[in-house]
Amino acid sequence: MSLGGKLRAGFGALGLRPPPPGREESVEEFVRRNLGAEVFERLIEPFCSGVYAGDPSKLSMKAAFGKVWNLEQNGGSIIGGTFKAIQKRANSQKPPRDARLPTPKGQTVGSFRKGLEMLPNAISARLGDKVKLSWKLSSIVKLENGRYNLTYETPEGLVSLQSRSVVMTVPSSVASSLLRPLSAAAADALSKFYYPPVAAVSISYPKEAIRTTCLIDGELKGFGQLHPRSQGVETLGTIYSSSLFPNRAPPGRILLLNYIGGATNPGILSKTESELVEAVDRDLRKMLINSNAKDPFVLGVRVWPQAIPQFLIGHLDILFAAKAALGNGGFKGLFLGGNYVSGVALGRCVEGAYEVAAEVTGFLSQFLCK
After folding, report:
1. Could you give all domains of the chain from N- to C-terminal order, each with its CATH number?
2. Can you give the residue ranges of the Amine oxidase domain (predicted)?
3. Which of 7, 216, 235, 277 stands the most exposed, by the fewest C-beta atoms within 10 Å?
């Protein structure tokens, strides 16, 4: 960033910037107003691409990055809000840390030894036969006794069961279809959320394929890289998987996980797997890989036609409308969850699950014997 860009960001963060417009701002509008054009173009635009695979001119600052949005609301500026948040944290009692958790050594980025699949597998093992696989929910009916009748298509045929509460963590489009017979208003609201396509491309190169200018002490270090659209590349970002976590690649090789597509590039759906690999490889040779390196070894290509929910301007209003339609329609005990409700990051999904669990507990407590 230029000196002028840094000064603009610093003064803006302190509050020397135009006031809020009195309407919901996009991420681009908020950042340009508070921190200037350079911060947006060089930092925030690629960050939005990496986290949401989204278009920052359409993403809602309040919905997508609510914690940062709240800083200005609570403190009059980003810096003012930060000081207030620090004071609040200092005056509040921290919950005790679970002694069973490991203590990180030098870094806070973590994963599971055999990948993220270990988490749902562990949950499944703990719950045992309560977890049903290949059960597809086909209908929900509200009964006169206040319970819900759920009909599933299973390998053994149709199965129905009753429950006082239902938590729906499926994508919003699926929830919309299932809820339409109950509430057209809720279904209409849920159908408005947009999920752009994203492809995950995992490829490996020999270590000598990395440009020497990208190495530190002879090693590829760091989390990865995010790519501004101004660079003229398709790839949204690249994670240095074998640098972050042990045993992700054999000695002498590196593993790179790349994401391509998103709200600004939905055309990936028309590309073949080999074309996606070629596009990623072409982009990497512009900044990370030597141009004369051998072709990468392809470990996997996964295309998600509807990948990440976009928290666009109006997102929170639409979500409120869906929940209100269910509540006003008498569908107590039916809860909406998932990443379009809580946020797209894994941590927010876990936090959101605890929040929904608390709502369910509160609802069911009224039926306990006094």
Report:
1. 3-91 (1.10.3110.10), 165-193+310-367 (3.50.50.60), 198-304 (3.90.660.20)
2. 1-355
3. 216
